[in-house]
Amino acid sequence: MKKIFQVLAGCMLVLSFGCRKLPAPSRFNQGFEYQPKTAVQHDLRREGDSLHVYLKFADAGFFSFPKNLQVAYTGFVNYEDTDIILADSVRKAGSRILKTEDGVLFDFKLPVARLKFPMVLQMKLVLRNDPQNALYHDVRLSATEGTKPYVLADAATNLPLFRNYVRANEPFLIAQFGVPQPGEFQRYETVFGAALPPMASQEKTVAPTLKKLQTISFLDYIVSLSEIGLYGIEIGGKSVGGVLVESANFPELVSAQDLIQPLIYLTTAEERNKLYAAPDPKAAVDKFWLGVNPNQNEARRLIRSYYERVTAANRFFTAHKAGWLTDRGMLYLIFGPPEEVKRYSNREEWIYLVNQNHNQARFIFLKKENTFTQNHYELVRSPYYEQVWYDMVEQWRKGTIGK
């Protein structure tokens, strides 16, 4: 758990806020949020004069003594600036904790009158008996996010799902606040390919308009969507977001055909064609990994490592397409979770140590506007990435990754 803690050098943010100048949010390393065991997720919903902030923590150990929990939040003008818009603490924070099978939920509300969009909300969680260590989580608040009128919610518990995807035929709710307004799902025809390598000179282009295939109305009742694909969400006649409908086992991939697809980052076109054409695709996938390392135990280790990364990428980076298809998902599969993640107003920066000499590889992802999601980032590609990319792919192909 210590790995997720970040200790502030110098002036500490205390609940009394006696120290006014605080480090800008961009100073913090948020890499732990992309580790499955320490992930932090959030969702937002506008509720009249308040903005409801929902949080989910994968690591339940931090909340073993909820009565000792203290939560403070600070609103910054942006990621780079130390100017503060608001600062306060959550009253009786320990009583707002809800432990579930897959994490710990926490929520609180902010008065909209004190917010200024865009801004950055940074939360600090500490335990009274261990005040020197703190867990930080930041939330980018744009006008779109600050007015979002719903959360995707579990049909059985009415709790937020903390994801922008559902599974085919999975019952869920478009949970609005107060008297619900009528809404519609707009299903679109989409074909999104996998991300290009980081040194690619030309990015794939996406058609400027998407063909609408179907319209489905909803209100405040339980809904389920049977067709896999991308759906826009309209409430009260306004576009307010979207949801991706995926297969029944998502974010995991289990079918042989699905297991072949993420190998695009490790294989040639000829190798993939042979895998798809094989009479027994599952056996062909196993043969591929045994070809990487004929030792069955090592082959199993490689398979487990690679597809665990696929699952994690789908959890963290799914946007208008599955997470493993995105630029961040591509880097995550090949390089693994980044050692450092720094956030700025228009981008994320990932830093990796790529060899024993502690040489760094730095990747920059620019935040892009997207009708369906606020989780869309594109990699700034460069020919300088070619060597480090092929070095990592070679480690996979030789079976030496992770050793």
Keywords:
403 residues; alpha+beta; four-stranded antiparallel β-sheet; five-stranded mixed β-sheet; disordered N terminus; 18% helix; globular; single chain; Immunoglobulin-like; 19 strands
What is this structure, in a nutshell?
The chain is of the alpha+beta class. It is built from seven helices and 19 strands.
Task: Describe this structure as you would to a colleague.
By secondary structure, this protein is an alpha+beta fold. It has 3 domains: 2-146, Immunoglobulin-like; 150-195 and 206-246, no CATH class; 256-398, no CATH class. The chain is built from 7 helices and 19 strands. Strands 10-15-14-12-13 form a 5-stranded mixed beta sheet, with no helix packed on it. A hairpin with a 2-residue loop joins strand 14 and strand 15 (238-246). Helix 4 packs across helix 5 and helix 5 (296-317) runs antiparallel to helix 6 (327-335). It is globular and about 60 Å long.
